[in-house]
Amino acid sequence: MNVLVIGRGGREHAICSSLANSASVTNVFCAPGNAGIAAVAKRVNIEETDQESIIQFAKENDIKLTIVGPEQPLSEGITDRFLAENLKIFGPTKEAALIEGSKSFAKDLMKKYDVPTGAYETFQDADLAKEYIKKQGAPIVIKADGLAAGKGVVVAETLEEAEKAVENMLIEGQFGSSSRQIVIEEFLDGEEFSLMALVHNQDIIPLEIAQDHKRAFDGDKGPNTGGMGAYSPVPHLPASIAEEALSTILEPVAEAMIKEAKPFTGVLYAGLILTANGPKVIEFNARFGDPETQVVLPRLETDLAELLLSLLNGEKIAPKWNPEAKVGVVAAAEGYPGEYKKGISLDSFHGKNDRVFHSGTEEDNGRLYSAGGRVLLVLGSGDSVKSAQENAYSFLDEKVTDGLFYRKDIAYKAVKKG
Q1: What is the pLDDT of residue 418?
Q2: How far apart are CA 333 and CA 309, in angstroms?
Q3: Residue 118: helix, strand or coil by DSSP?
Q4: In contact, 314 and 200? CB cutoff 8 Å
Q5: Domains of the chain
Q6: Would you say 265 and 312 are in contact if contact means Cβ atoms under 8 Å apart?
Q7: What integer is the mean pLDDT of 108-128?
Q8: Is residue 268 helix, strand or coil?
Q9: What Å distances lie between residue 101 and 22, 54, 319, CA to CA?
Q10: Is residue 94's pLDDT more than 80?
Q11: Are β-strands 182-186 and 153-156 bridged in parallel, bridged antiparallel, or unpaired?
Q12: Which of 9, 79, 109, 220 is the most buried (most CB within 10 A)?
C-alpha cells in the first residue's frame, strides 16, 4: 500500500524510516520532507498546512494511510477534512487536538476528571497574573496557552523571571495569539519522562518510555528548546511506572475525551513527572514527540503501518520491542532557540545513514546544508544507555562542523545512576 507522512522534521524522518521497513508498504511519501527523508521516502512538494493539495494528492496516489507529524495541521483540522473525504488518517480531529492546542483546555479536563497534575490558574491580565505569582512564590511555571513550537514554557526560578515571562507573553505578545492567554502552574519536583501511546477512542497501545532534554545547554541550563536529545529505555525509573501512568492518566484521559464529545485518535503524548505521589502530567501533545520518536521507533520491531491500521480497525496488536538502548543527540545551529544562521555546510553528513535523522536540512547541487534551528539528530545504539551514549558521541564528534552545537550530556541521568 501507499502511505503518506505529513511533516518535514526529524520526527517525520523516523516515521518514514520505520514505514520504509514495513513489508506491507509499497511507497512512502512525505509532504514536504527534507533532504534526509528523501533517502527513505518520496518527497512531495506540498506544505503541511495546504489541506486541499494534500487531499488531492492522497486521492490521486491511492494513499491508504496518512500519518500527521506536526501539531499545526492537526490544530487546523486536517483530520476532519480527510475523514469527510473518507480517507484513512492517523491523527486527532481539530476538537480533540485541543489537548495540545490549548493548555487551559488540557488542565481543565484533568481537573474535571481527577487526572493527576499540578495546581494552576489561567490569566489574560498581566497584573492579576503577577499578583498570583507573588502569592505562590518561585519556582513556578508560565506557559503560553496555545501552540508555540515547544518554546512557550518558562520554568522561572525567581519571581523576577516569572514576572518577566508574564510581560513577554501577555504584554509584548512574544508568541502572538498563542500567548494572549497564559497558564501559570505549580512547579513539580521529580524525574521527567515521556510516554507516547497510540490511541483510537478507548483503545490504547502504550509505546516505550523515553526521556528528553529540553534545555539548550549541558546540565539542563539555558532556554527551553524543541528538544536537544532523548534516550530510551529509561532504566532508572521503576518498571511499573508505565502501567501506573496508563491506568491513572492515559486511560482516564481517553475516556474523558469521549465523554466530552472529542474522542481522540492518534498519538497521545504525555509529558510526565514522577513525583513523591506518583506520576503527574506536565503537558499533553496530540502527536509523536520530537526527539523522542527518533529513539523510540527504532526500537519497534512490529510493523508500524500494520499496528496503526489494526488499531483504526478496532484491533490491538501488542508491539514487540528491541531491548537495545538508543540515545539521540541533536546538533543545532548556533544561536538556537533564538536567532540562528541557515545555510551551514553539512557535507560530512551527506548520504543515506540510518544513524542520522534530519530535522532542518536541504540539498542543492549535491551539497547538503542547514535549513532550520535543530539541524539533525545522531542516533547511538548499545546494550546499555552508556554504550549507546558513547556510540552517538563518537560518531557526532567526528562529523560535526562549524556553526553547529550540541549538548555533551544527553542521557547523563541514566548513565550516572547506572
Answers
A1: 67
A2: 37
A3: coil
A4: yes
A5: 2-93 (3.40.50.20), 125-180 (3.30.1490.20), 191-312 (3.30.470.20), 325-416 (3.90.600.10)
A6: yes
A7: 97
A8: strand
A9: 31, 22, 29
A10: yes
A11: unpaired
A12: 9
CB 142 within 8 A of CB 166: yes
* Residue 353: per-residue pLDDT: 82
Of 305, 291, 353, which Cα lies nearest the Cα of 26?
Answer: 305
Spatial contact of 294 and 379, defined as CB atoms under 8 Å apart? yes
Q: Is residue 336 over pLDDT 90? A: yes
Give the C-alpha separation, 364 to 199, whole Å.
Answer: 39
Cα 55 to Cα 277: distance, rounded to the nearest angstrom: 46
CA–centroid distance for 410 within its chain? 17
Cα separation values, 231 from 270, 323, 415, Å? 16, 13, 11
Angle between helices 10-20 and 304-312 (to 10 degrees): 90
Chain center to CA of 138:
27
**Which residue from 226, 224, 225, 227 is spatially nearest to 213, judged by alpha carbons?**
227
User: What band does 171 get if pLDDT is binned at 50, 70 and 90?
Assistant: very high
Amino acid at 97: A
Residues found in the chain: 418
* Mean pLDDT of the chain, nearest integer: 95
Q: What is the spatial distance between Cα 69 and Cα 263, in angstroms, rounded to a whole number?
A: 19
User: Contact 194/289 with Cβ under 8 angstroms?
Assistant: yes
Q: Which three cell numbers stand for residue 154?
A: 518558562
Q: At residue 376, what is the residue type? A: L
Pairwise CA distance, residues 122 & 107, whole Å: 9
Give me the DSSP letters along 151-180.
Answer: --EEEESSHHHHHHHHIIIIIS-TTGGGGS
